[in-house]
Amino acid sequence: MDADALLASLQQAVPGAQFERAPTIDLQTVVYTSRDTLPDVARALRDRPDLAFRLLAELTAADYWPAEPRFELVYILVSIANRARLRLKVRLNADDARVATVTDIWPAANWLEREVWDLFGIVFDGHPDPRRLLMPEDWDGYPLRKDYPVQIRKTPQTSQPLQVTEEEFRASVMKDRLTRG
User: Which pTM was predicted?
Assistant: First the structure.
């Protein structure tokens, strides 16, 4: 399916929605839509037989700080029936980085949205399980944001690193070598 046919089908399915094609170097169609129309666009992409993007392969984000809009959500969609891939993008401003969840459309979005929230701080309104996924519950901030401090000093909360002397380390290595033969 070529990009023009895809855009024409989307315009027909979601009247009034604004779409913007973006250049690409990998021949994968890239389309921007607004966060307000994302649920309707996602449903049309999944449900229309001429589109049939039933697989959400990936969901991630990019931070373009200090530029505005600061964030871009990137949905990688696959239509097995039509042998097509689509990169759907949504721009979000820093002061209102939120969008509706698509977990009811693509269940695979559940953990992917949690990951994006956990690492970028983008909120998915209506998400069924909005908890941290990768970072500890008591973690402050969002580590993949460009303004996140690189050097962080935080006392380990759950365990302390194992400390061994140089002699104990060498003895352990030698014991390991002897047991392996």
Answer: 0.81
